[in-house]
Specification:
Blueprint lengths: L1 H20 L3 H22 L3 E3 L11 H9 L3 E7 L5 E5 L5 E3 L5 E3 L14 E5 L2 E3 L4 E2 L5 H7 L7 E4 L5 E2 L13 E3 L4 E3 L3
Parallel strand pairs: 1-2, 1-6, 6-9, 7-10, 9-11
Antiparallel strand pairs: 2-3, 4-5, 7-8, 11-12
Family: Belongs to the 5-formyltetrahydrofolate cyclo-ligase family.
EC number: 6.3.3.2
Catalytic activity: (6S)-5-formyl-5,6,7,8-tetrahydrofolate + ATP = (6R)-5,10-methenyltetrahydrofolate + ADP + phosphate
């Protein structure tokens, strides 16, 4: 059963990665404006003073305009740093300085706060390849965020950031997959009844 689910996830990820790769630039630009607007609205609505987010890659929804807004608004931003052991360290982002980290992912430059810094977050924004209508999130296959969320005792609201066509009826799920409370798309903020 597990190998069937893992195979289904790999196939779906490949399809979604290709869809993102071939999305026209003008569509992505318009979507990014919507992402920023909805992320700001969510941060204000949840009154999140410390926000855990991520530095987006070139094929993900652009988080940088939102991060710049959050910092300019006096909010603390925690950004992940992937470790070889499968855990995430955290650093405070300045909205400007980043480097290439493990797997070629963008990471903040700054003092490392360690894995438990995530417990200070009032809102967690995480990347995803897709989310289903039940709040099942499918990441990109390394499990960093599933491990992080699974280890938290008092988890604040967790929202995946995805394009509208990545909200699916159902995504393949394994036991370790941590659900999300909602999703942010270019056109809406969705909350799931978990």
């Amino acid at each position: 059963m597990t190998s069937e689910v893992a195979h289904a996830k790999r196939a779906l990820r490949a399809e979604l990665r290709e869809r993102r790769r071939t999305r026209p630039a003008h569509v992505v630009d318009a979507a990014n404006l919507g992402f920023t607007e909805n992320l700001i609205a969510l941060a204000k609505e949840t009154d999140a003073h410390t926000i855990s987010a991520y530095l987006s890659t070139s094929f993900e929804p652009d988080t940088r305009p939102f991060l710049n807004w959050a910092l300019a608004d006096g909010r603390r931003v925690l950004l992940p740093i992937a470790r070889q052991d499968g855990l995430l360290d955290w650093a405070e982002g300045d909205g400007e300085t980043e480097t290439e980290g493990l797997y070629g992912l963008p990471e903040p430059v700054g003092g490392i706060l360690g894995p438990i810094a995530i417990n200070d977050a009032d809102l967690i924004l995480i990347p995803a390849s897709a989310v289903d209508e039940h709040g099942t999130r499918m990441g990109w296959g390394r499990g960093y965020f599933d491990r992080t969320l699974g280890s938290m005792e008092n988890c604040p609201p967790v929202f995946a950031v995805v394009f509208d066509d990545e909200i699916l009826d159902e995504v393949p799920r394994e036991l370790h997959d941590a659900p999300v409370d909602g999703a942010v798309t270019p056109t809406r903020i969705i909350r799931f009844a978990n």
